[in-house]
């Protein structure tokens, strides 16, 4: 029998379950390109429920306990003696979400001789030290595509929020109880006609490009894998072979690569410095792809007109993290990929991975990041590990 340890974000402060705004969510059975949505044998939750917090338990308890497995759920993941560190040494499986990541550092992996599987309930497995996972003989899997469309919608929302300067205008009529039109519009522009680019044109990046096409913008992208010619033509895309060429050509950048050695700290003072004065960056990918302090400096100097991020480091960030107070920001806590709609898909995908792994069946290749002693599946296409 296996011990499964799930590290999930805390329950809502108002108690669990919350009062839901809607009674149902649309049923999504497949994704662009033909991949099917998760196909577990069954689920023990109602789609649309809050599943990613401790009481939600990703809807897994009955399934695991009926099969005789031990299931431990906690949000306590940092500091000496935390539940994660206490429970890890005899765990076989760790489940974690990027929104509240269980950082599986080399030391933690070494402390867990039985650990064989790390599941990311969501997308993005950089919270697992992948070289250590490889040398430990682990499988790392994530629920590819489960929240890609959710994130693409969030990125488009943040682009419009920044360019139109929506949040300060909202504040004038709510918190400030005013009607200050001139103040509200003094940094407000239309997106129409701008050059917009994505770094990383994978599942999320392509969905962002497709959603932006009707806004009559000029679209650009940079990816280590060039898109097929017909896609480039359909979306009238300009391809850039490197991030510098992209950065210097656009007004708005949306970042959609994984965090790995090639992308860590990529947008530093130097690369942000080649962007046009008054550019915008939206980063729903991973915080460490940009230099924290370079972003603050660029907002202060006006090189950047705005920065909207959904991702921070560490998570949760300290109360004095400079992104909480920098000017011209439209930050969210890491929520883009954990809408109630997305949770239903990644909870079902987590169960599908567990059903297969516990029964000795292969996990879908597109869900794999690390397997068989190296990067595998989506991991082999989208990640690198330091050599
Ligand atoms: P994906 O694997 O489909 O696409 C990633 C793309 O990045 C690939 O096309 C890959 O070739 C490209 N890439 C990798 N390294 C590159 C480099 N150095 N330069 C240019 N391109 C590079 O992944 P996805 O589903 O689109 O997700 C992308 C990332 O978004 C995830 O890894 C995760 O970090 C993040 N994410 C965030 C949230 C959220 O809630 N904010 C949710 C899901 C995913």
UniProtKB/TrEMBL annotation:
Its EC number is 1.17.1.9. The keyword Signal does not apply. It comes from the Bacteria. Residues 157-336 form the D-isomer specific 2-hydroxyacid dehydrogenase NAD-binding domain. The record marks 286, 334 as: Important for catalytic activity. Residues 63-363 form the D-isomer specific 2-hydroxyacid dehydrogenase catalytic domain. InterPro entries: D-isomer_2_OHA_DH_cat_dom, D-isomer_DH_CS1, D-isomer_DH_NAD-bd, FDH_NAD-dep, NAD(P)-bd_dom_sf. Gene3D superfamilies: NAD(P)-binding Rossmann-like Domain. It is found in: Cytoplasm. NAD(+) binds at residues 148, 203-204, 223, 258-262, 284, 310, 382. Substrate binds at residues 123, 147. Belongs to the D-isomer specific 2-hydroxyacid dehydrogenase family. FDH subfamily. Catalyzes the NAD(+)-dependent oxidation of formate to carbon dioxide. Formate oxidation is the final step in the methanol oxidation pathway in methylotrophic microorganisms. Has a role in the detoxification of exogenous formate in non-methylotrophic organisms. Homodimer. This is Formate dehydrogenase. It comes from Streptomyces sirii.
């Amino acid at each position: 029998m296996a011990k499964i340890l799930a590290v999930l974000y805390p329950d809502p402060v108002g108690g669990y379950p919350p009062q839901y705004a809607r009674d149902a969510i649309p049923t999504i059975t497949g994704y662009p390109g033909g991949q099917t949505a998760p196909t577990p044998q069954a689920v023990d939750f109602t789609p649309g429920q809050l599943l990613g917090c401790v009481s939600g338990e990703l809807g897994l308890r009955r399934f695991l306990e009926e099969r005789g497995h031990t299931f431990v759920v906690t949000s306590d993941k940092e500091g000496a003696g935390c539940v994660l560190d206490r429970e890890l040494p005899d765990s076989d499986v760790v489940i974690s979400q990027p929104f509240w990541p269980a950082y599986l550092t080399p030391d933690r992996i070494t402390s867990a001789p039985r650990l064989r599987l790390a599941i990311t309930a969501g997308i993005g497995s950089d919270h697992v030290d992948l070289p250590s996972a490889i040398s430990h003989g682990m499988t790392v899997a994530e629920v590819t595509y489960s929240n890609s469309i959710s994130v693409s919608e969030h990125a488009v929302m943040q682009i419009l929020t920044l360019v139109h300067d929506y949040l300060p205008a909202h504040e004038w009529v709510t918190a400030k109880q005013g009607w200050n039109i001139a103040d509200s519009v003094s940094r407000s522009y239309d997106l129409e006609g701008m050059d917009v680019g994505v770094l990383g044109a994978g599942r999320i990046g392509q969905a962002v490009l497709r959603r932006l096409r009707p806004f009559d913008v000029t679209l650009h992208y940079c990816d280590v894998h060039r898109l097929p010619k017909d896609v480039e033509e359909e979306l009238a895309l300009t391809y850039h072979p490197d991030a510098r060429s992209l950065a210097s050509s656009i007004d708005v950048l949306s970042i959609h690569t994984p965090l790995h050695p090639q992308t860590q700290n990529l947008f530093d003072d130097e690369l942000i410095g080649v962007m046009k004065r008054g550019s915008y960056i939206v980063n729903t990918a991973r915080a460490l792809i940009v230099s924290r302090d370079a972003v603050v400096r660029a907002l202060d100097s006006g090189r950047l007109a705005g920065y909207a991020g959904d991702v921070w480091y560490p998570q949760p960030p300290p109360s004095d993290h400079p992104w909480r107070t920098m000017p011209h920001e439209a930050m969210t806590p890491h929520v883009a990929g954990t809408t109630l709609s997305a949770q239903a898909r990644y909870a079902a995908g987590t169960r599908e991975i567990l059903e297969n792994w516990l029964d000795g069946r292969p996990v879908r290749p597109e869900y794999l990041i690390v397997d068989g002693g190296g990067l595998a599946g989506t991991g082999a296409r989208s990640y690198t590990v330091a050599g």
